[in-house]
User: Fold this.
Amino acid sequence: MDPPDDRYEEANRRSSSSAFSARRRREAIGSRYIALLLVPSFICIVTFLLINRRLTPYFELISTTIDQPRDDNGITILNNSEAAGKSSEANPTAMEYSGTSNAQPLNPSSSHRLGLTINNAIPVELPNEEKIHTTGFGPGQFCSFCPWSKDSMCAGRLDFLMTRYQMNETAAKASLIDKCATPPIPHNVHAEDDEPSIILHVGPHKTGTTALQSFIYDLVKVNNNIFLEDNLRIPLEHELPGCFHREGVGLNLPHCSINRFKRDGGQMSNSMCGSMREAFPKFVADAYNKSQNILVVAEDFDRSLINFNRLHFLLQPYKKIKVVSTYRRLHDWLPSWYNQIADHYQLEYARGNETYPSFVEWVEEKYDKFLKAHGVTVAERFKSYEFIESVHLINMHDMADSLADTFFCDILQAKATCKAIKDGVRPSKSNIGFDHEYQRLAIEAKRAGKIPASSLEKKIQIRRVSKFLMMQVEQTNTSLPRLCPSNETLEKILTQELEHESKYLPEWSESQGGEEALRKSFEKAVQKKFCAFDVVKIFDTGIMDSIFRQERCHKEGRDAGPAFYDFSPAGEIAACCWRAWLAGSA
Assistant:
């Protein structure tokens, strides 16, 4: 027999190896197919279990409301342990807010104070006959503020049916009742002293509220358990969502309570408030069932077109709504308000999109409108509604320290938060204004062709030019003509201040020297803050033309550099430009 051929054996070995490799490949592919089938199935099962675990408490909570007793407002009542337990399960954000897994909500058996009182502030009282009652929200009633869709409320749908199809109100409501009936809100029962409160700090603008908002959310970010130690719940961005973030979270509530949203001057539309209408009531119900006080600080509660029916609806089931406002004398507050507006719109004024009013023009035209946003007026407006339990004023002129110190240490007596303040925690942001008269002068000079238009295209340029004008006026000791408000307007403002202090601050006012001292303070403010440059007379007399020429040269020198002076005409202007360039490059 011939010996086997080596090439034949080699071929056999290769063939066997190839078959084995193919089999292994088929097995590997099969394993992958099995894995591809099993993994999605496993994910679906886990997802189902998680969803079922998260949603079941909601279904249980809803089912318990069918035969439960209701309070005077038709709101479902649960006992303490039942409501607190179910709400904490149904709202997983509660433990997320606490910041630690072992932080527990306070309960009525705790040694901590649950009910909250306002201390060391001025109570605002109005005659009972002036009280305004809001719409009832009993379960099954038509709910104007309930969501019809994510972007609209039932009130909008009702108006549509009545307008488009000429339906009467009763028939239109009946057609919507299945989706627009007021839902029951499960809640527990509290003893009178332990009834939790919602505290609304309503500003107004230019009373230190921005710094207070900043302090609160800076501290929440660092250690949000400090507020929980004081039994205060602060709404976070996911609990009060909207277009305002960081320290401005609280502003989403008033802007979603403005009557016609953006059409009434708000920053949020009806559709933009959809997520807030879904998240915030869950947050409020959860805090109530944990016996927690809620604090919302928002200076835009000073808007006069707040829809209080809608606000009341969003604050259910809380029965104790406490409001704190801040008093600042009109002769300080009005110039500060004007400066903030001027700062906000200065680029619009510089571009010619808006007319830049002087303070005199502004206060003569807008005084009655802005009086509605003053601390006393805002306080009285909130107090006029029956669902507001109490309204108090903080006297900004009688604070030993910051507003945060006064508010948390003296007014709320929140020990943990006060300790943080005493330990040095301070807000990272404030809103301190400054006089804008030289900015207005610079912008008006640009519009009159006195200085180059390109000098005022950015805020930093406006500040630089206005600073240059101010320095030149001071160095040359130039006296600029001014205009002041009419005696009638000044008398109206002073009379209003005297009424405010005689009504709400009589003891403090007397300690400061009474009416005589207030008049002197008012006259001093008028001389320093109320009078504005008479730009028409300044331009007509040419009193500042040499300064404007220096600014023009200054601008040309900065743009061209030393080469500009190689072909400039000799004389005073060229020398001025050379000095201006040297000053600008220094």
Observations:
- The beta strands are 122-123, 147-149, 152-153, 197-201, 232-233, 293-297, 320-327, 388-395, 482-483, 532-533.
- Confidence is low (pLDDT under 50) at residues 1-17, 51-113, 560-574, 580-586.
